[in-house]
Each structure stands twice: as C-alpha cells, then as structure tokens.
Design goal:
Pfam families: DUF2007
Distance between the termini: 13 Å
Order of helices and strands: EHEHEH
Structural class: alpha+beta
CATH class: Alpha Beta
InterPro entries: DUF2007, N-reg_PII-like_a/b
CATH architecture: 2-Layer Sandwich
Mean pLDDT: 89
Helix content: 40-55%
CATH topology: Alpha-Beta Plaits
Number of helices: 3
Largest sheet: 3 strands, antiparallel
Protein name: Putative signal transducing protein
Oligomer: single chain
C-alpha cells in the first residue's frame, strides 16, 4: 500500500475518500487513533492509503478535483 494523501483536515479526508470510492478505488485511513490521542490540536496528519496498483490513478483523481496534500 502507498500513501496518497496526508492531511489534518477531516473534511478533506472525507472528500478524498468519497472521490476514490466513486472511482472504485479501495482506500484505507491510517493514523486515526494517533490523531485522536494528540487531543485534536491538528499536528498529526492522517494518511489515506491505496493499493500500489491504484496509486497513480488515485493521485490523478485527487489532483483533478483540487485536493491538497496529495502524496506522489
């Protein structure tokens, strides 16, 4: 799996997941519990992971829709 997005913004994460789901690209959110432990002050980003084979397409989908924090 490869990271396709790193962000501290939960709304941006939800938007990115919806975009990827719409393109039938499976994704998995990591570091959810770490960001909760830090007290929601927004210093620990969450990562959105996709399969290696889907990474290029996922990056293209997110960039085409103006999502910030996309990881190459």
């Amino acid at each position: 799996m490869k990271a396709v997005l790193r962000t501290t913004d939960p709304t941006q994460l939800a938007f990115a997941k919806a975009l990827l789901d719409g393109e039938d690209i499976a994704c998995f959110e990591m570091d959810v519990h770490m960001s909760v432990l830090e007290g929601s002050i927004g210093i620990l980003p969450r990562r959105l992971m996709v399969a290696d084979a889907d990474h290029a397409e996922a990056v293209e989908v997110l960039r085409d829709n103006g999502v910030d924090g996309v990881v190459d």
